[in-house]
């Protein structure tokens, strides 16, 4: 995926945590794991036919980077987990993927 101009990293907000929480279940199913800790730490976003979020999420001592698509309001679709990267560390930068 090409990102164009690189989005700026920001600290996660309550809105970003809510978006991450909406895709926690699909991620649990794909990884066949439970996540007792699932805290959004930081994110980048990009407007492309809606908004794409790249969110770093802390899961205990490990991190995962998730890509989430929030469609345009007129499409009336739920947010969707479009990709993710596991085994990330605290210092791994969130990037477009």
Written account of the structure:
The structure is a single chain. With 97 residues, the protein is of the alpha+beta class. It has 2 helices and 5 strands. The chain has helices spanning 14-22, 24-31, and strands at residues 10-11, 39-47, 51-59, 62-70, 80-88. A 5-stranded antiparallel β-sheet has the order 1-2-3-4-5, with helices on one face. Strand 2 (39-47) and strand 3 form a beta hairpin. The protein is globular. 19% of the residues are buried. The model has no long low-confidence stretch (mean pLDDT 89). It holds the Pfam family Cystatin. Belongs to the cystatin family. Residues 1-97 form the Cystatin domain. Its main location: cytoplasm. This is Cystatin-B-like.
Please give the structural blueprint.
Blueprint: E1 10-11, H1 14-22, H2 24-31, E2 39-47, E3 51-59, E4 62-70, E5 80-88
Antiparallel strand pairs: 1-2, 2-3, 3-4, 4-5
Give me the side-by-side strand order of the main sheet.
1-2-3-4-5
Q: What's the helical proportion of residues? A: 10-25%
Distance between the termini: 6 Å
H-E order: EHHEEEE
Main β-sheet description: 5 strands, antiparallel
**C-alpha geometry:** globular
- State the low-pLDDT regions, or none: none
What amount of the residues lies in strands? 35-45%
Class by SSE composition: alpha+beta
Q: Total strand count, please?
A: 5
Q: Using the CA coordinates, give the radius of gyration.
A: 13 Å
């Amino acid at each position: 995926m090409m990102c164009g101009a690189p989005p700026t990293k920001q600290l996660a907000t309550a809105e970003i945590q809510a978006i991450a929480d909406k895709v926690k279940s699909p991620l649990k199913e794909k990884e066949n794991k439970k996540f007792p800790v699932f805290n959004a730490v930081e994110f980048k976003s990009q407007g492309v036919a809606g908004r794409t979020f790249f969110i770093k999420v802390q899961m205990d001592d490990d991190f995962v980077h998730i890509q989430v698509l929030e469609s345009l309001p007129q499409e009336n679709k739920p947010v969707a987990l479009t990709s993710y990267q596991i085994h990330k560390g605290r210092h791994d930068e969130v990037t477009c993927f």
